[in-house]
Amino acid sequence: MENKENYKSGFISMAGKPNVGKSTLINSLVHQKIVITSDKPQTTRNSINVILTEEDAQMVFVDTPGIHKPLHKLGKYMVNIAIGALRGVDLILFVLDPTDGIRNSDRRVAKIVAESNIPTLLIINKRDKIKNMQIYNREITEIKESLPNLKGYLETSAVTGYNLAELKAMVKEQLPQGPQYYPEDVISDKPSRFIVSELIREKIFQLTREEIPHSTGVVVEDFKVRDNGMLYIRADIYIEKDSQKPIIIGKKGMMIKKIGQLARKDIEELFEKKAYVELFVKVRKNWRENENLIRNTMDFKQEGQ
Length: 305
Ligand SMILES: Nc1nc2c(ncn2[C@@H]2O[C@H](COP(=O)(O)OP(=O)(O)OP(=O)(O)O)[C@@H](O)[C@H]2O)c(=O)[nH]1
Ligand SMILES: [Mg+2]
Prior knowledge:
Residues 125-128 are annotated as: G4. 36% of the residues lie in helices and 21% in strands. By secondary structure, the chain is α/β, with parallel strands linked by helices.
């Protein structure tokens, strides 16, 4: 940790129900794709620090799973992680997506945010999809009034970049003076193995439908740089039932091939190295209810938790 004069720093946790654009906002703010996103709810399963270092400040954005009513043990883990990530941070970005209304699921998150006692910015994301904001006035005012620590309000689009410079300025303004927590070349607190497993999982979320994405977990078993400078990655894809195997493998292996190809492209871009990705599908019956298997997919092993 380096101490600089007049330097600002802090931890900024995202809060919101699933699919509101928390992860997309982080990637857009740091101008790099670090955390995974998809059009399906419950994409993010763990908390991940994404670090943006500038001349005058270091912002540590904490991506979190969407807060929802969990249906299985994995869901409970996710929600506990999301709520836990609000403890002790300097600022919360509470994100709403008004595209299908502001609902009780948002009000439940508002209650948790209000109880955290942490300075909060209320973000109305996906502004590009809304023609008339007026119709949400009543709900937004009600949410604002429920937040005793509200420090600011902004409408954004993580996709078009609308108001993101303003958002960054508002975040900086709220941060206290502090040390540079991470060296300037560090962009995430997670090991490479975790990031790789996430990229593979993202492709499954993007390419498959119905219960398949949510029933899968990815564990990177091998991550090596070979003598020729190439990355070698071997990963297991967990599924819950035998009947899901033909779907994830696809006709003539086309689906698993596509997952591997798209993941490899992202991995090569991120690590700036050629990569070889080998994927295996494993049936782990009801793994989402099994503590040890959940932990494997969350990469808790390396964190010693
Ligand atoms: N049009 C539009 N789409 C957006 C915007 N922000 C995010 N999206 C889309 O919304 C979907 C969900 O985005 P994510 O960033 O994965 O949402 P999340 O809140 O992290 O979701 P969970 O991880 O499931 O909690 C993706 O398809 C994004 O491309 C936005 O500002 N405008
Ligand atoms: Mg997310």
